[in-house]
Structure prediction request, 439 residues.
Amino acid sequence: MKKLALHWKILIALLLAFSIGLWANFTTESTIEKPAWFENLHYFTNFVGSLFLNALKMVVIPLVMTSIICGVAKIGEDKDFGRLGLKTLFFYSLTGLLAVVVGLLCVNLIEPGQVDPGIREKMLSGQSALEAQKVERAFEHADGGMKGILEIFQRMIPQNLFKAAVEGQLLGLIFFSLLFGFFIARLPGKYKQSQTIFWEGLNSTILGITNFVISFAPYGVFGLVTPTLMMVGIETISVMGTFALTVLLGLAIHSFLVLPILLRILGKINFFQHFQALSPALLTAFSTASSSATLPVTLDCITKRAGVSKKIASFTLPLGATMNMDGTALFECVVVVFLAQLFGVEMTWVTQSTVVIMALLTSIGVAGIPSASLVAIIVILHAVGFPDATISIGVGIVFVVDRLLDMTRTAVNVLGDSCAAAIIGKSEGETGYYPSNPG
Ligand code: ASP
Prediction:
């Protein structure tokens, strides 16, 4: 019998997680003290989910470092390096800008923040104030305005490599690995050879571990999504229905219209083939809400199922996972304009352009971890002059529905990165994409 492809297995796990999670939430909705079976189910699924997430995170740092070092050592000798770098930056800026424009159009057309005064009052008190406090505590280190942005960029050059690794500061590690690979390429003969062999061996070993971890994805996805839905439920989404729909519509337009057009025009690539090849990565991104944790799966899909070379993938994807966040940039824009509408703050097109630029800049610095963009949103709200009190209430309101939107925007972030890798590969003359029947 033919084995079921990985993406189908993950999809089935996701459907099961949705059914069980929502059912558990629904049946215990009215009870304050949750029954023992609920607690047990939550504990057990959460346990399975965190095992998978831990395993993914375990391979992220060695995988990112060895992939970049090997990739750059190979291309660092000649002009390729600069050309690839420029192409990657150009593509990331282009898709980021398009995403932000889509978000801005959606939020200005739908105006989700123009709510009934009664509802507005309710939203600005009670539950959201409570959530606001949580957010404020969680993000009290987020600084405002230009300083906040600069601080994000300061992390790019880490003082201490090991501290950056311990704290999972991917951007700093990427910067170091780029330099490391670049200078391996400049070593004299025998040193260069031994370094290249060493790092390639290490990279292959880590890839082996990664494949092993990925084979558990269906269980991991089930374990990650079930407890989330048990706690959140679908009802929280409906409270903020129009806002959530605006974000989802923007993300859908970017994923199913903008990116497919770019794939077709710039890479002559069929979007559906690409989407199918990347589906395990997209489903993992959806389940983990973390582009960084998904990176091992993205690298695996883009090289094995999509057929992009390791050289291009290992250069573009780790950079993309931290720097190219289309979904996040779009989300940030929608949130800021939504909150302005909600608080009755007039936002001229000039202020909105500031939001665009800030959203683009901060999405580069935002870490690929769950809810990371809330920090960036605080930075932007400060920069466009929101008073502190409104910022915490506003972020609290958004926080209520953040998890499910985070899952979706992370999938869009990963989709954007993968499109970049495929298009850049094509532009470098690569062929043989999407071998039939990816397994
Ligand atoms: N969770 C997102 C990611 O990992 C970042 C964010 O938008 O919060 O890509």
The first helix runs from residue 6 to 27. Confidence is low (pLDDT under 50) at residues 134-144.
